[in-house]
Amino acid sequence: MTHVEWAQGIFEKLQVKMQAQCQRIGSKIPYIPRDGKYHDLDTPTGISWWTNGFWPGMLWQMYHATKEEPYRQAAEAVEERFDEALERYMGLHHDVGFQWLHTSVANYRLTKKEKSRVRGLHVANLLAGRYNSAGKFIRAWNQDKTGWVIVDTMMNLPLLYWAAEEIDDPRYVFVANNHADTCQALTVRGDGSCNHIIALDPMDGSLVDLPAGQGFSPESAWSRGHSWAIYGFALCYRYTGKIEYLNTAKRIANYFIANLAQSDWLPLVDFKAPKEPVKYDSTAGMCAACGMLELASHVGEYEKDLYIESAMKTLKACEKAFANWNNEEDGIMGYGASRYHTDDYDKDTPIIYGDYFFVEAVLRVIGKDFLIW
């Protein structure tokens, strides 16, 4: 069976499952299912929570692939709900790309709806406004973390590249590239592993600390952070053509692949954590697979095969081990974990962004995806 044939078979299952979920969930905003069911805004910060864009992202991907109207209708209803987060403002931070690329920008790309374009540009300015010119970085989170930079922000930079193209203004590119350069210099280690967090002096950008993040320890290798970096730097290369970003994405991907091969292509939460207990995070594998497929579109034949084969081994292994195709239950890709030191509810479970990247990857393999980033 070819990779495309496998993915086509998965897509047929996805259509059935997504139709059932769309009918059940509609314009609710899911995060992690409890007892097999999603509940609206069951998140730590309500409408402002960073994962809220992934369900409408799944809906837009399915709408693009099938042209079935219920997907578009539900996605647009979620987008309108997001206006409350904009009005509140407090609670928004570096992850606005995750929220509005998958809602307003996706809508505009597919329908040319002007109100969605305006929302996307407004949020791009919010992200650019977090830029620290002394340190050349986009600050993470809020409160007292004025000099904190996290690798997750790499996946939000496409919002700035989109805005730059949309209104023909390079300011956004300068901000995105400067942040990527800082992250590249200080986050990526020599062996291709990554720090999750770097703490800089907000007055001059000098390195102050490497705080613990969502991995086992500050020195460890949180797998989803690496997946953000693989896909994020690959996307930066797509938008800029800067070979340094491509080479960085490849270095991190090669580290990720070497570790995946040691665990039968099922991603561990942290590649440098103790061997016991074994903790998986399928969301890292799904995002990394998308990043590898993106990388494969930018490299030569030998490397293309490496990244495609690694992505497919990960997708197939996780689908076989973790996928839930029961159409009466919410969530598709099980065994996600939000971080290494988890509570009971956010480990060994479907998480909405894991499902999003699974859908994106499958659609990409069969040529039915669209660039949401």
Outline of the structure:
By secondary structure, this protein is mostly helical.
Order the strands across the largest sheet as they lie in space.
3-4-5
What percent of residues are in strands?
A: under 5%
Mean pLDDT: 98
Secondary-structure element order, as H and E? HHHHHHEEEHHEEHHHHH
Q: End-to-end distance, in Å?
A: 30 Å
Based on DSSP secondary structure assignment, what is the total number of beta strands? 5
Q: Indicate the radius of gyration in whole angstroms.
A: 19 Å
Low-confidence stretches: none
Largest sheet: 3 strands, antiparallel
- The SS-based structural class is mainly alpha
State the helix count. Answer: 13
What form results from the Cα inertia axes?
Answer: globular
Work out the helicity level. 40-55%
Oligomeric state of the chains in view: single chain
Question: What does this molecule look like?
Answer:
It is a single chain. With 373 residues, the chain is mainly α. 54% of the residues lie in helices and 4% in strands. It has 13 helices and five strands. It has helices at 3-25, 54-66, 69-81, 83-88, 96-111, 114-128, 157-167, 171-186, 223-240, 243-260, 282-296, 301-322, 352-365; strands spanning 131-132, 137-138, 148-150, 197-200, 207-209. The strands form two sheets. The protein has a three-stranded antiparallel β-sheet with strand order 3-4-5, with no helix packed on it. The radius of gyration is 19 Å and the shape is globular. The model has no long low-confidence stretch (mean pLDDT 98).
